[in-house]
Amino acid sequence: MKTNSTENVGKHAFEVAGLGKAPFRFVGASENVITYPDGTQKAGGTCDYCGTGIRTECFIMSADGKQSKVGCNCIEKVGETGILKAYKSSPEYRAKQREIRDKKATAVFQELTALIKANADTFRAQPHPLGFVDRKTGVPLTYLDSVNWRMDASGNAGRAKLLTALKTRLICS
């Protein structure tokens, strides 16, 4: 942090802001959200360093035992890589990231299922991209068979790629 004050030269930015004595360590995180009756949400906490509203409160402890809550952006801004690394490896952060991934995966799955259902006849009319035939009956497989197999055999990333490929195919045809 740049300063013109000679007494603050060499001091940690959190220390200058009155959050205690350096060094600081990460002690936990929590989400603080205000939910209104109409379902909208906003940040429910305030950063002790900059005063900005924060949704995810990162709790830090100073060397003299003072606990403060700061936003992860402020941790990045002051260049506190150790605390940021501790936050990003915390169970709270990993749970939040997992929740975000699960929401995205569910949305992709639902959109892909709806797209396949809406265009089943179009896909059924097209031949299998690799020219496969059913082993038992010898009947040529369709593009719909290929799509269904890819849908069942893929994970989240594969389904996202399949969704993009199907959208492109439908736009181009």
What are its keywords?
173 residues, alpha+beta, 2 domains, three-stranded antiparallel beta sheet, two-stranded antiparallel sheet, 7 helices, 7 strands, 46% helix, 16% strand
Structure description:
The protein has 173 residues and is of the alpha+beta class. It is built from seven helices and seven strands. The chain folds into two domains: 6-87, no CATH class; 99-172, no CATH class. The chain has helices at residues 13-16, 72-77, 81-88, 91-118, 120-124, 143-153, 156-172, and strands at 25-31, 33-35, 41-43, 45-46, 53-54, 56-61, 67-70. It has a three-stranded antiparallel β-sheet with strand order 1-6-7. Helix 4 (91-118) runs parallel beside helix 7 (156-172). The radius of gyration is 26 Å and the shape is elongated.
- Helix/strand/pairing category: alpha+beta
Give the proportion of residues in helices: 40-55%
Q: Cα-atom Rg, whole angstroms?
A: 26 Å
Strand share of the residues?
A: 15-25%
Order of helices and strands: HEEEEEEEHHHHHH
CA-based shape: elongated
